[in-house]
Amino acid sequence: MGIQCAPMSLQSKPQVVIIGAGPAGMMLAYQLVTNDVPVRVLERHPDFEREFRGELIQPAALGALETLGLLPKLVERKIASPDIERRLFVGESRRVMVPGGKERGALISQAGFLQYLHELCGRHPHYQLDFGTAALQTIRENGRVVALKTRREGTEGRIDGDIFVDCSGRNSGLRKDVGLEVEATQLPADVVWLRFDFSDAPQALPEGVDVHMFGRGVVAVFFPTTRSRLQVAYSAPGDLGSLRKNIPELRRRLLPTVPSKLRPLVEAKLDEHTETQFLRVVVDRLERWHVPGLLFLGDAAHTMSPSGGQGLNLAIRDSVVAANHMLDALHAGQPIDEQVFQKIEAERRTEADMIQGMQTRVHRMVMAPMFVEHIMFTLLGAVLRLSKKASQGGQGAARVEPRYVVPVP
Ligand SMILES: Cc1cc2nc3c(=O)[nH]c(=O)nc-3n(C[C@H](O)[C@H](O)[C@H](O)COP(=O)(O)OP(=O)(O)OC[C@H]3O[C@@H](n4cnc5c(N)ncnc54)[C@H](O)[C@@H]3O)c2cc1C
């Protein structure tokens, strides 16, 4: 359990500037702001509405949300649906064990989640979120990041701060700007996301997150999302970008992967008006997560593949560890400096590396023919059960608990 602390009264409060109002950025903002640290968040989009994003929260991150008192509120507001299981099938119906072990997580609306955190932060005068503001590059003095060059409505500006945290997700431009090396792993398959309105047949929606693997890199994922919609991720080798615009070809390839209960409905609904998005699958990591004055978290530090629904999970867990160490330092009257950043990276890097390693192995396994895939996943399940590592995927490699908990009003 986290420590229930009264909000801190800090004599010298550094201004923390967070780039990106995604899960990593908003969760960090929430924990700092509720502990009386001034935070300014910059978000390049005009709001939290995002097309397709991670919606599965694994048990490992749910625990932190529970400790912070956020989970019951999210459930009460119908932003999160708890007790959701991710199930893995070879073909339509041969069930195999999830490599990370049995997971019961939650599906969450990212937009609803981020909006709720923004509302809670907005109760504090020392919180500011600038929508429509993009960070372009860092401004450094004596080797330390002291400000950002920004753009808002076509006008360039400068935003100063004491500490900068880049939570701007995959392809963060600031990585290159500060000269950090990125190590990337090439993956053989990309993803087309689709969303269908199932308000006329909500009973047909899957109960959890169902992953079907068809060999040679073809994987299709089905899960319910907000407003009685079905979300589908279709992944296969080759150029999937063009599939979005070629509906006959998309139908030819997708429909055989849809479970028979859903297939007639998807077949009837799939047309040029279907919401779709193409995602280039990337797994990469920074050689180091920080430079003087600037820390990277979430996908900006380690871009995750959608495999295993881990991106959101890691982003939330990064933010909890970052808040713990930053608040520890402030409580001890210490600056939030490179040593603090180093502690954050040291605590999080092993898990990010381990889960990326698992994602890369799973991507290789799904490239095999279907019968080999079946054997490999069955064996992997047995080995993990024996080695008792089965809980790592869903539970995280290490315990992550918020240390500074302020009751949610
Ligand atoms: C299409 C898609 C589907 C996905 N599906 C899943 C899934 O099912 N399960 C799962 O766990 N993960 C999934 N992911 C990954 C998951 O969404 C991310 O790993 C997770 O959101 C990472 O959180 P983050 O806060 O680090 O970054 P993000 O969520 O990417 O947030 C970054 C924020 O920074 C903003 N930003 C970017 N650049 C700038 C800038 N220069 N200045 C200001 N703001 C900026 C962006 O607009 C965004 O709001 C998916 C990702 C995508 C793209």
Give structural notes.
With 409 residues, the chain is α/β, with parallel strands linked by helices. It folds into two domains: 11-186 and 282-396, FAD/NAD(P)-binding domain; 189-279, 2-Layer Sandwich (D-Amino Acid Oxidase, Chain A, domain 2). It is 32% helix and 29% strand. It contains eleven helices and 23 strands. α2 runs parallel beside α8 and α8 (311-331) runs antiparallel to α9 (338-365). The radius of gyration is 21 Å and the shape is globular. The two termini are 19 Å apart. Bound molecules: flavin-adenine dinucleotide. Flavin-adenine dinucleotide (FAD) is lined by residues 19-25, 42-45, 52-56, 134-135, 167-169, 173, 193, 277, 279, 298-300, 304, 306, 309-313, 315.
Essential attributes:
binds flavin-adenine dinucleotide; six-stranded mixed β-sheet; FAD/NAD(P)-binding domain; disordered N terminus; 409 residues; alpha/beta; 11 helices; globular
Summarize the structure.
With 409 residues, the chain is of the alpha/beta class. It is built from eleven helices and 23 strands.
Write the layout of secondary structure elements.
Layout: E1 3-4, E2 16-19, H1 23-33, E3 39-43, E4 56-57, H2 59-67, H3 70-76, E5 80-90, E6 94-96, E7 104-108, H4 110-121, E8 127-131, E9 133-141, E10 144-152, E11 155-160, E12 163-166, H5 173-177, E13 182-185, E14 189-197, E15 209-213, E16 219-225, E17 229-237, H6 247-254, H7 263-269, E18 275-279, E19 283-286, E20 290-291, E21 294-296, E22 302-303, H8 311-331, H9 338-365, H10 370-387, H11 392-395, E23 404-405
Parallel strand pairs: 1-23, 2-3, 2-12, 3-8, 5-15, 12-21
Antiparallel strand pairs: 4-7, 5-6, 5-7, 9-10, 10-11, 13-19, 14-17, 14-18, 15-16, 16-17, 19-22, 20-21
The chain binds flavin-adenine dinucleotide (FAD).
Flavin-adenine dinucleotide (FAD) binds next to helix 1, strand 3, strand 9, strand 18 and helix 8.
